[in-house]
Amino acid sequence: MKQPSLDQLSTFLTVLRQGGVNRAAEVLHLSQPAVTARIKALEAALGKTLFERSPQGLRPTRDAELLVGYAERFELLASLVERDLVDAGAHRRLIRIGASETVT
Hints:
This protein is mostly helical and about 100 residues long. About 60% of the residues lie in helices and about 10% in strands. The chain has four helices and two strands. It has a two-stranded antiparallel sheet with strand order 1-2. A hairpin with a 2-residue loop joins β1 and β2 (about 55-60). α1 packs across α2. The protein is globular.
């Protein structure tokens, strides 16, 4: 079984905080399918359904409500590691390039 990643947990929290995948995608500067893929990968890693999907949107399941506390702790720990250990003078840049196939 694959372990959940920090990106997946962060995406999960953003979806909850923003109230949906589309708004989370905007905040994270990702496509909606990328956010959905991270949530599905997290659900697969945990073997749990985290959201009930309906025409009205997403509603967190009981498992999602339990995961929130753990995910927030991981988020805090990651920020502390960055604050205390990452060299602020180091040049660190991330470039993401995305593309999707168009079938005609």
